[in-house]
Amino acid sequence: MPSTPASTSPFPHPYWGVWIGNGPTYPTIEERLINRISYSIRTKPQWKLKYTNDVIASKWRQELREQFGDETRTIEDVINYVFKELDWIDRTESTLGGYTLGADEKILASSASESVVGAEVKQKLQSQANELASSFAEVDYHPGTTNVVDLVHPLLFPLQYGVTPIKDANGELVIAEYLDTIEQKKQGVRWGISTKYQWLPATMTLDESKNFQFSSYINNLHPVKFSGLYSTIAEVFNATVPALDFSLSFYASGNRSKVEVPGDVYPDSVLDYWDILKKEEMAKEKEIEGYKIDYIQMEKLYHARQREWLKPLKVSFDDDPKPTNPVDLKQFSKLKVIVKMANIELTPENPTYPGGSWHVEGSINENIVATVLYYYDVQNITTSTLSFRTGYNEPNYAQDDVAWLEVYYGLKDEDIILGPLESVEALEDRIVVFPNFFQHHVDLFELKDKLKSGHRKILCFFLVDPYDTLTASTEDVPPQQEEW
């Protein structure tokens, strides 16, 4: 197993600040336009057949010129980039075993019509999850909700510093203590850390057949009573490993800008224009009695000239994107994985799920780098979507260069640089994989037929940074449930 310490992990901090500089670069107008157009095409039925059809592609190109031509000075280059990117995505998805790329290549979703899990495994999971739900004496609603039922959740029986017994290096039980080394897991900022609790992942070990199996208990899921469910959950996890490898490879490789802004964007003449304006105004002040220089108007004239003279950006798809830091989870003999199972259950009396809050998963204590969601049972609900967004670093611009911000980024001073990343529909059989850097939330949905009950059931995996040797797992902490 690679022995890289957590502090030198290639995965960035999910809690970051713009002044630290460890977030993604804010995309230009052209890059955002490329992303919008590309994703909108990829949501069309049979897009892989249509984009290569000369007649359809020609029609699409003309529609794109008419619809977006006013948003960029390089619409032809943007359109050409999109079609070359579609070709790369088409070729890439053919190697991913049923997964497709989202608006960002680090977000992957399986095709709901071609489940990567398989019907037999899905049916086992449905049956075993129902047995688990029936075993509870009372329904465990998630705090603050009336229709989210927790079957397995890491909030229950976590590790508590100063309370929970844990094995030391000699295998002896001692009381777990908060250690300052936890703050070394991620470099850059010190928030997002708990001094009280840590969710407990289970350990999964790579077997001889190169599949991961649980080698310690899943917190809040009895390993003897529900041993069959353990095996099924492991089968689902192994079906997600190719998508995790792909997502984490691009995540570990850092931010990729499709359209770069070079340093020499102004002609030399514009740099002298302020001095020219100033000399003209000073001359008027001398020649015209009572004339006062209007510096605000001068700035408007100067910025208007800047907008005219700022060079168009180069938009060109030169090479297929490749991760510079590829990740292969099977290079690790052990992984730490937090398992969650939850149902959203709607009834005629309680027909609406109001939506969730924007969040990333866990704290730096757990050091979660990726989330996997498997929608294994969806019945009688309206369209349910999982939305994504992310914050960005500020563009690196000269002070008060408002024209540069506006022309290249569509920004004004003091704008909030937080951007949506589209959404993924929560369809039965679908698996969604994404790095624990993007904020996400579930959007509102309700019963389709208001006279019948409905539900949306999920199995979740939260993958701990595989380079992290500091996060405690159930391999180290004995079960805390008294009834076990």
Automatic annotation (TrEMBL):
Membrane spanning stretches: none
Limits of the DUF4246 domain: 8-63, 77-484
Signal peptide: none
Full protein name: Uncharacterized protein
